[in-house]
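Priority: low. Protein: Acyl-CoA dehydrogenase. Input follows.
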Amino acid sequence: MDFNYSEEQQMLADSLRRFIDTEYTFDKRRKTARGGGGMDRAAWAQLADMGVLGLTVPAEYGGFGESAASQLVVQRELGRGLVLEPVTPSAVMAAAVLNAHGSNAQKAHWLPAIATGQRVVTLAYLEPTTRYRLETARASAERKGDGYIINGNKSLAWHGEAADAFLLTARIAGTNELALFLVPRDAAGLTVRGYPTMDGLRAADLVLQNVAVDTTAVVGDAADGLTALLHGIDHGIAALCAEAAGAMEKLIEITAEYLRTRQQFGKPLAAFQALQHRMADMLVQKELALSMAYVAAQALDESDPAQRRRMLSAAKVTVAKAGRLVGQQAVQLHGGMGMTDELEVGDYFKRLTMVDVLLGDSDYHLQRYGEAMAA
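Result:
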């Protein structure tokens, strides 16, 4: 995989950076985050116009059919701006699942809508008792006539409050099959309760009470739901790693500027060698995270499942560790101001902290790495 930016990728990165610097200002982001909606529909439409939402959607469904390398370019820039909108859960994860496992009818109906920003689709697979063990889902789907009746609870659906449909898991009653269903937000019996997360984003809990869907709601074969779900999560991990690398990059720039302007004992803080060493440590960790984001993107093209899991889990653990160090150092180097809500640094710190727990924490991925090595 070639990670040198092509001319088109560089133009896209430049366009996104200009958009974030001039229109997606930090004050505007905070207003959106605290407004309770979780996303700015005008910004969402602009991202669609720039091709961000349809980047990896095949051309026959209104997208651009770009590779994981182009997705890394986009997510890195989105991370620099801490973009709130549900690009990763909808345009990356849901689009990947539908493109690889959806029926022709599901692709034709949902992929163009995702690419144009008309619809938001997110995954709902976590439950209060499952932690990250996806195969232990307790939500059930009972066959009835030409469809299914789904009952159960889902928690922490990423951007679930803004979603128009959910890709959710349920176990087929009487079997060990874990199926993936595409359930519209307005389905009778589905209740969605949204709430803010620590990093300013939004999540939602779902309650499904006798939700009736027909067989066309099943994504792929009923027995392949876990495979389809993991495909989307793998793409999400790669996107999240690139986003975190971009956030670290911007946070280091903010911290360096603060050290150049803040005076102590008649000279800028940047002149003190001890602080220079700490900045150097942050830069090393950022470069390591960016390198592992490349590894995660390359893993998506890996045909061996065990090798793909090893690469993605290694990237996730390394990026989470780097993000934690960069975020903590940035707060400390800002001194007492770093603990206030007045500066941007706190927002970046919270986002980088959440990178660890999203899509599997470090403990989970270390165990998954070990299992993949054993396999």
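The chain has a mean pLDDT of 93. The CA atoms of residues 219 and 289 lie 34 Å apart.
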